């Protein structure tokens, strides 16, 4: 669970987070039009640093553009507000969440006014990330919306309802999470994480255009290339995934969750050599222990 710091940044000023809320009868709450992005920060020898914050801000602005929200703040302000709330929080490790939602208190499907409030909050994580391999379920009829219906590179609240129901179904079936298929029946992604398989030493993940451009996904691909691990960004058939040697999910808050079972069948190696190497490389990059990746960090002090 994530606990929000007492102060958050709202439209240019620090305010008590307990007082900042989207109106109940507004578009964000009634229609799910709130867009958001979630980055992370980590303790380094030079104090806390945000990981790939510029990329999170760029994706946040893209989500807002796709949904048609008008933001009064530029990239630099959104980055500076993040370092400010992290510094204020006094935490070494946690998440930073950018949100934008319409100021108009109207739930009409297409509202007249597209000017948005923007909030930036630091959050501490209560539970340490899970280390033991997870069980995932894949259902033939649990699919991501086609890109023409809902662009997969938009992080809008309303996009998560279908995936939430699929995850509930997976939990009821005894799994920890679900991996959704794309409209053609190939592997897409989990509700809030990208999916990877390791097949005969090659790291394989579905291509962009069908999945969210995960920033952890991108980091994993870059670090794998550094390591000389062959990578494939290609359609990933379900049977290749279920018979993979290793598999894992990636997201900012995980950042890597090794998969142990798919639909009740154990994989050959949960947390095998490729997964283990990637876990080590990401941790080093986030904690300021990999000078070759210092450009990924934004120091808070
Ligand atoms: N896919 C979806 C649908 C997500 O919501 C997330 C979480 N942002 C991810 C993948 C992972 O992305 P990232 O590594 O940038 O957190």
Summarize the structure.
With about 300 residues, the chain is α+β, with helices and mostly antiparallel strands. About 25% of the residues lie in helices and about 25% in strands.
Question: What can you see in these coordinates?
Answer:
The structure is a single chain. The radius of gyration is 19 Å and the shape is globular. The protein contains seven helices and 17 strands. A hairpin with a 6-residue loop joins strand 4 and strand 5. The strands form two sheets. Strands 8, 9, 10, 11, 12, 13, 14, 15 and 16 form a nine-stranded mixed β-sheet that branches. Helix 2 packs across helix 3. The mean pLDDT is 95. The protein is an alpha+beta fold. 26% of the residues lie in helices and 27% in strands. The chain starts with a strand and ends with a strand. It folds into two domains: 124 residues, D-amino Acid Aminotransferase, Chain A, domain 1, CATH 3.30.470; 153 residues, D-amino Acid Aminotransferase, Chain A, domain 2 (Alpha-Beta Barrel), CATH 3.20.10.10. The protein binds 4'-deoxy-4'-aminopyridoxal-5'-phosphate. The site of 4'-deoxy-4'-aminopyridoxal-5'-phosphate has 14 residues, from strand 11 and helix 5. 4'-deoxy-4'-aminopyridoxal-5'-phosphate (PMP) binds next to strand 11 and helix 5.
How would you summarize the topology of this molecule?
Elements: E1 2-4, E2 7-10, E3 13-16, H1 27-31, E4 35-42, E5 49-51, H2 53-67, H3 75-89, E6 94-102, E7 116-125, E8 134-137, H4 161-172, E9 177-178, E10 189-190, E11 193-199, E12 202-205, H5 215-226, E13 231-233, H6 238-242, E14 246-250, E15 256-262, E16 265-266, H7 273-286, E17 297-299
Parallel strand pairs: 8-9, 8-15, 12-13
Antiparallel strand pairs: 1-7, 2-3, 2-7, 4-5, 4-6, 5-17, 6-7, 10-11, 11-12, 11-14, 14-15, 15-16
Helix pairs in contact: 2-3
The structure holds 4'-deoxy-4'-aminopyridoxal-5'-phosphate.
